[in-house]
Amino acid sequence: MKTVDLSREQLTLADVLALAKSESVVIHSSSGEDFLLEQADEFDREAAALGGSNKFMSFLSARSNEGGDTPIDKVRKKRGL
pTM value? Predict the structure, then answer.
């Protein structure tokens, strides 16, 4: 992981992106904030798209409201065990 301190170095966006192609980059801003820059892969893009999908977020909300685990005794009774 590479750290870039923008209060000490003057780098262009192209320079920072070139660094991020080979490793994660922590960018320390002159205002004291830190940011992490990494090259995105297909999973990252899909996760971002799903996070912005109202339909998918509604699905997750409905799933989180479903009942919990089924007690083993109930499963055994249902299965006749």
Answer: 0.57
Classify 70 as helix, strand or coil. coil
- How big is the CA angle at 32 (ends 8 and 1), to the nearest 5 degrees? 70
pLDDT reported for residue 70 = 85
Q: 40 in the Ramachandran plot: left (φ > 0), alpha (ψ -120 to 50) or beta?
A: beta
The mean pLDDT value for 32-40 works out to: 94
Confirm if 37 and 27 have CB atoms less than 8 A apart.
yes
- DSSP annotation string for 26-39: EEE-TTS-EEEE--
Q: State the pLDDT at residue 66.
A: 80
Q: Which of 57, 61, 35, 38 is nearest to 47 (CA)?
A: 57
